[in-house]
């Protein structure tokens, strides 16, 4: 296995809108991020991934970009960005930016031109088709509800938008589009960024025929997945991007890849480095209801979770590189989803157990802002508390069509909405958690008086200090980075346990991911050893031991 800095790194995701407001307008901004860099340095992370801060109408909080080379004024200026970057670099932190090139905003000048006439030079920057029988070109549904096609009156044709109507998909078959993207990427590399997180990059190549898909029972629309995800030319395009841009710099590149399989990951993130350095897969996040069944209250099944994550550990070992995550700006908070946020003690213990379980695996771990505090889902009360376009559109579509009762749908939003990740970062006990002196753009969780960074930084046994310890261990022990993986006790419904091996070292991680006790027979050689890390102060390793609720430890021999 090849060694690389990005394999040894821990990444921290900042969602600028929700991280730190510096001017009291209620919206987090780049100067706010800069002010908090010492906090991230002290946590010990190596890389910061910044969600979009580019010029944007903000209908999808910046994932709808109208100028890739300008900063949205509410986030600051280009000078603010350069300051952030140089200060981060001076603290030894690398900065990865978001690359959103499956689509632009409908306010991007390319689209403004494209929609003007059928023979406009920018027409082929996007995907235009004639309607069929007075309706859209095919039956694909969009990720944010409704048809994936929008009729544009000016020219009488439909454009494809796999997300919101305001997010037209770029036509990657057009070489001019690809060159525009590469030129823009080189421009950011020239400014000094250290990599890209590539938004839904597995979707950039569409099957040219664009056939109808199969509709599920009672559904008007089909999934575009089979014709869009891992499409026919996606690897050709990424190899070209690699030759023209990525190979010229020393970057971390992580593809957000809906529909990723192990086989596909071995191509996107191959060890030869001809495409990306790593990829995000979604399978484990979809275990409590896939994309189409997202709106439910199901809990993940631990046996399925173990089987799934282990499949990725085995499947990529030596061939490609995993990205490890529980949380990001699109996912509810893991402690509310898979842990237990019903009491302070169990919340902290389960947050630590989940952290240990993920951070001792092979791959590059990603921490989403506030995860290191064990931040919980938001305390949303009514529909008016939500901001996310996906949530609001789904609510309208599913309640109007009678698929969901309003009350039930609201409960699903409270559990699963992306807004759960996007509530203000909880810094301290000042009003609005120290996030803003004004009115935050989204409701601050009232539990900030109890869960906040200021308190946790100073408390030895906090979730924050547990994350800090996990990060430090990864930087100290190569077995955590490079070791092989072996799942233990696959049939145990409570314990997630595994071995890692590397150059004569063996690491054992045992996590009770349940609120009940469970008995474990440790493999030979671990009894009597002191744990490397544990989430209870008095864990003693015995040949036969009883793990307490949410108890977790790792040990090295
Ligand atoms: C990705 C982003 C998500 C965004 C979508 C469309 O999934 O993570 O936040 O809404 O792409 O850009
Ligand atoms: Ca602000």
Helix content: 25-40%
**Which cofactor or ligand species appear?**
alpha-D-glucopyranose, calcium ion
Neighbour order of strands in the largest sheet: 11-10-9-5-2-1-13-12
Tally of helical segments: 17
Note the overall shape.
globular
Instruction: Determine the strand fraction and express it as a percent band.
Output: 15-25%
Please state the structural category.
alpha/beta
Number of E-type strands: 20
Task: Flag low-confidence runs.
Answer: none
Average pLDDT, all residues? 97
Q: Whole-Å distance between the termini? A: 22 Å
**Using only CA atoms, what is the Rg?**
23 Å
The largest pleated sheet is described as:
8 strands, parallel
Commentary on this structure:
This protein has 17 helices and 20 strands. It has 557 residues and is α/β, with parallel strands linked by helices. An 8-stranded parallel beta sheet has the order 11-10-9-5-2-1-13-12. The chain has a 5-stranded antiparallel beta sheet with strand order 14-15-16-20-18. Strands 6-8-7 form a 3-stranded antiparallel beta sheet, with no helix packed on it. Strand 10, helix 9 and strand 11 form a beta-alpha-beta unit. The radius of gyration is 23 Å and the shape is globular. The model has no long low-confidence stretch (mean pLDDT 97). Bound molecules: alpha-D-glucopyranose and calcium ion. Calcium ion (CA) binds next to loops. Alpha-D-glucopyranose binds next to loops.
């Amino acid at each position: 296995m090849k060694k690389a800095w990005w394999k040894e790194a821990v990444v921290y995701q900042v969602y600028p809108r929700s991280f730190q407001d510096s001017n009291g307008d209620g919206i987090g901004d780049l100067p706010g991020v800069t002010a908090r860099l010492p906090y991230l340095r002290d946590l010990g992370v190596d890389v910061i991934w910044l969600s979009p801060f580019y010029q944007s109408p903000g209908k999808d909080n910046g994932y709808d970009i109208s100028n890739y080379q300008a900063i949205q004024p509410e986030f600051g200026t280009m000078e603010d960005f350069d300051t952030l970057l140089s200060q981060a670099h001076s603290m030894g932190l690398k900065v990865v930016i978001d690359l959103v090139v499956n689509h632009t905003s409908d306010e991007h000048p390319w689209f403004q031109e494209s929609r003007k006439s059928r023979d406009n030079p920018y027409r082929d920057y996007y995907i235009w088709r004639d309607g069929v029988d007075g309706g859209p070109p095919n039956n694909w549904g969009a990720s944010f509800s409704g048809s994936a096609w929008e009729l544009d009156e000016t020219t009488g044709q439909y454009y494809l938008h796999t997300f919101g109507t305001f997010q037209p998909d770029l036509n990657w078959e057009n070489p001019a589009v690809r060159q525009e993207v590469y030129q823009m990427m080189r421009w950011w590399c020239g400014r000094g960024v250290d990599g890209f997180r590539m938004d839904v990059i597995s979707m950039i190549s569409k099957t040219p025929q664009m056939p109808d898909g199969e509709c599920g029972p009672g559904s008007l629309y089909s999934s575009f997945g089979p014709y869009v995800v891992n499409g026919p030319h996606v690897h050709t395009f990424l190899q070209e991007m690699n030759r023209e841009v990525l190979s010229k710099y020393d970057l971390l590149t992580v593809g957000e890849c809906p529909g990723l399989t192990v086989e596909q990951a071995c191509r996107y993130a191959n060890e030869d480095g001809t495409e990306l350095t790593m990829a995000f897969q979604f399978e484990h996040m979809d275990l409590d209801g896939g994309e189409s069944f997202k709106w439910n209250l199901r809990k993940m099944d631990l046996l399925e979770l173990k089987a799934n994550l282990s499949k990725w550990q085995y499947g990529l070992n030596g061939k490609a590189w995993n990205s490890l995550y529980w949380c990001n700006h699109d996912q509810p908070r893991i402690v509310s989803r898979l842990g237990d946020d019903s009491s302070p003690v169990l919340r902290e213990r389960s947050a630590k157990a989940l952290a240990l379980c993920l951070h001792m695996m092979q791959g590059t771990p990603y921490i989403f802002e506030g995860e290191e505090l064990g931040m919980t889902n938001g305390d949303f009360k009514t529909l008016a508390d939500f901001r996310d376009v996906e949530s609001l559109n789904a609510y309208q579509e599913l309640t109007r069509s009678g698929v969901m009762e309003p009350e039930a749908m609201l409960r699903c939003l409270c559990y699963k909405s992306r807004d759960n990740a996007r509530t203000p970062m909880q810094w301290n006990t000042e009003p609005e958690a120290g996030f803003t002196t004004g009115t935050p753009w989204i409701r601050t969780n009232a539990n900030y008086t109890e869960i906040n960074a200021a308190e946790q930084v100073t408390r030895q046994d906090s979730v924050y200090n547990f994350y800090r310890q996990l990060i430090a261990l990864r930087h100290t022990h190569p077995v955590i980075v490079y070791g092989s993986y072996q799942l233990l006790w696959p049939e145990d419904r409570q314990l997630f346990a595994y071995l890692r091996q590397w150059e004569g070292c063996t690491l054992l991680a045992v996590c009770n991911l349940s609120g009940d006790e469970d008995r474990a027979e440790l493999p030979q050689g671990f009894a009597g050893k002191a744990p490397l890390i544990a989430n209870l102060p008095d864990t003693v390793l015995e040949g036969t031991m009883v793990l307490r609720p949410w108890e977790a430890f790792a040990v090295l021999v």
